[in-house]
Amino acid sequence: MRIGVLFRTEMIKVRRRPAFWVAVLALLAALALTYGIRLHASVKHGRTPAPLPEAWEGILLGTGPLPALLAAVALILLTASEFSWRTARQNVIDGLSKNEWFLAKLLLLPFLATVFLGVQTVAGAGAVVALAGAGEGGAWIGREDLGALAGSSIAFLGIGSMALLAAFAARSSGPAIGIFLLYLAIAEDVLLLVMRRIESIAAAADFLPGRLMVTLLRGEQYYAEAARRVIEAAQEAGRTPPTIHDTGTLLLAASSYALLFLAAAFVLYSRRDL
Amino acid sequence: MYVIETHELTKRYGKLTAVDGISFAVESGQVFGFLGPNGSGKTTTIGMLLGITTPTAGEIRLLGLSGGRGLPRARRRIGATAEAPNFYPYLSGYDNLRIVANVKGVDPRGIDAALETVRLSARARDRYSTYSLGMKQRLALAATILGDPELIILDEPTNGLDPEGMREIREIILELAERGKTIFLSSHLLHEVERTCTHVAILRRGRIVRQGSVHEVAGGGTVVELRGGDPDALLAIVADYPPAVGFQRSGDAVIVDLNDDDLSALNAFVASRGIYLSHLAPRPRSLEEAFFEVTRAGASIASGGAA
Predict the structure, then answer these.
(1) Which of A83, A94, A263, B229 has its CA 20 to 30 A from that of B142?
(2) CATH architecture of B221-284
(3) Do B72 and A100 touch (CB under 8 A)?
């Protein structure tokens, strides 16, 4: 396998692809909106925005699954379109083996996760420093923050692997994005409702892949203070507090799902001609 | 030295056999035309040679290499396009060739020379999506010659082009042939193939029904028009004549396809069976005629020239 060649080739494609830059700009716009709203709320209530390191929870997890979804859509666009343009077959004609072509797309997964998580982190940290300063004394980043960063990374890879499976199944950008979003937004909710009505499998509903990945992007999984807030809020509202699963178990399940989706994508890809 | 060798190459899609155990070999320096009607298995065969279609059975050897590791290595020394040109529409022609150079592991400094050869330098920095069909075909040719490949495989390179575009592509192919490149060319345009190729194979329903040099396939035998007596009786006599590899009635005449050019022997054979010919006219046969005879007439002719 010529990993360097594969990565360089993918970078030529990514750098010039308008869809990639549109996705990055959409993330920046969403971050600007988020921090704008937070600043407005702070000013309205006469509070000072939290500086680092207290602000890390908001930086890493404050935008929910949106950055991971944007990375996933970019991944679908960069993969599925190669089938409709028939450039996948041309790459193989030019000398990549079929397995190398798959690996090239696999390399995009950590690359896009790094770019989108990186943009989210750097832009968020920059905004916090600009609005509230760098904070005083103490560690620049805490253990809980590093846990949140690691968990977010796994969630990005997990959501990305679902997107890659959709791309290899549909082999066309529009249908692949449709399958991916419909599953997350509708199919999984229907499954969730059905599973919760069946007592023997109700507990497993929290481990449906989409729900699991989104759970890994919540503060209560990493921050004791956030967990306390969630439980108190539920009690005040007279609701049963949500179950907070062991984060290690969730990370293991998410990693297993990611490997399963990638294996399924490879099987689908291998069994069909280009 | 053989640059392409296939042995009993087969591709089945469910119950449909697209390519049925074909074996052929292309020698270094040949310009090899791969002919056949639509659906005869040409593109499937080329797809298997290029690694985009997985064979059901059979063997492929390219540039002396075979197997899961050997064939991708060989393909990096081959320039090829399959059917329509396939490039990234949002990239310029130049950037598309950078990707090809990267994948093939060849020096990107050769891109300018390749663009020059196909007369596309002036538009090299424009987006591929703005190119005309002729320019897209020329960019595909530039991609195939990048890195000075030993073997060039072209599937319908003049598809959809106007006569001027076809002439340009033909000139480029002839120029490459003059440089000693081995070219494997699939095309519907028989007169183009006859003018460009040294060797041909004709495919019908997934099988090679005739192959050899263009001279052998097109004019190696003789086509003769005969008249004399009852045409049906004449047809029955001709059917027994051993050198006759094809025969059919055409009005009151009988058209015979001979694998030799001994017309006096034919005349004597017919006379010995009691019919005296009033008309015996040989005529040269084009590749186009050979192609249509082989692909339409079927078994009686196919069996004679099959290789």
Answers:
(1) A83
(2) 2-Layer Sandwich (3.30)
(3) yes
